[in-house]
Amino acid sequence: MQQHVIAIDIGASSGRVMLGTFDGQRLSLDEQHRFTNQLVSIQGQDCWDIDALFEQVCIGIDVVLESGIHPASIGIDTWGVDFVLLDKQGQRHSPAVSYRDARTQGVMEQLLADTLDRKALYQTTGIQFLPFNTLYQLCALPKESLSDVATLLLIPDYLNYRLTGVKHCEYTNASTTQLLDCRTKQWSQALLDRIGIPSDWFLEPKAPNQIIGEYKTVPVASIASHDTASAVLGTPLQSDTCAYLCSGTWSLMGYESDHPTLNDEALLSNVTNEGGAGGTYRTLKNIMGLWLIQSIQKLHSEYHFAQLVEMAQQSPAFEFLIDPDAACFLNPDNMEHAIVDFCQRTGQGTPQTLAQIARCIFDSLALRYAQVFAQLNHLAPKPLTAIHVVGGGANNHFLNQLCANTCQVPVLANPTEASALGNMMGQLIATGAVDSIEHGREIIAHSFELTQFSPTPISQLDALQARFDALTQ
Known about the structure:
22% strand
């Protein structure tokens, strides 16, 4: 008997409302509604248009309901770290400011210099030091305006609240904040006291894959609401020696582990230990990802994304390189100018063509993947022997082949909609249609065809990696 669910997957640039169908053996996804997600300026800050996002979510759900299908449940996943503050009446207190806003500029460095010990903070939270983590966003809030704040909800929890009226805190997204004790999986009271944020703003984190309320009589499930947690759940990893690479606006490379990795090497490598859907940890590294080429395409809208990839393939390899994770690429006014400026400042000369810019991005991402893969191999309990790419980037055969070449391991690609599939699988577990994550991954593996990329040699790869290492240090 078929079971339908609605999987709502919202990324930093777009959202999709997907109808998932499970026939007892295989899964399928059918896009019902797609919408853009872009920053808006509110009171001089870069914010998410959260009301517009919620409206689009409701439109997509209604498209399904009006077709006569009655789904078993609804689930929402989004990006991490960002939040909405509610007042004592349960209304939104202030705009949903984006992690790309400049308000956190210098906050992390100042906090680590004056208030917090880096190693102790890492030992508590296990989270990568990124300047836009929730911890630093909270420290950037104007304290004089917070007297009426009663509750903090991360973005997917807020959207669920709007759907159901139920305030809930899902664990995998909470783990991205750098405020959670990674061992107890509860908010760190000592850390909140240290930064002067009231602990009563925070709801107790709850495990994913459970029903929390209803929208128009349809059960709403709190699934692994961080999109990467859902994507990893939706990745049919073939063995425990296979790394995953969730490739989209951000690239996230890591491995699954039963325990957080908190040693000095992990701290030095600045890896993160986010919560997974089945009680595991996602030991991973955030990499800037396809945001770089997306920003270039936005500047040159006369070219489709596939055309930029083709242009890059025709351009000489490794002529220009950037550090994809440099702060200047987080939210520049003009990405092309930022890339040219980086090349000039680092003595590489000036990229003259759009093809050179595009090639620079893909080459640099591939070398960054290799750099992170090597770091993860030092930390993983077993040598990592392959990389499984999921997300929109799984369609980028050029970048996937570059990844195989620079990392010198086989690369598997697909499914592209891993976040939506993980979202769907979490709902099927919540409703009892699937009994475990392991069973769910077997179903996903049988439902979608994988593409393999075998590594080919790169001339003087060690020297090339050393050149890239020098740029990124």
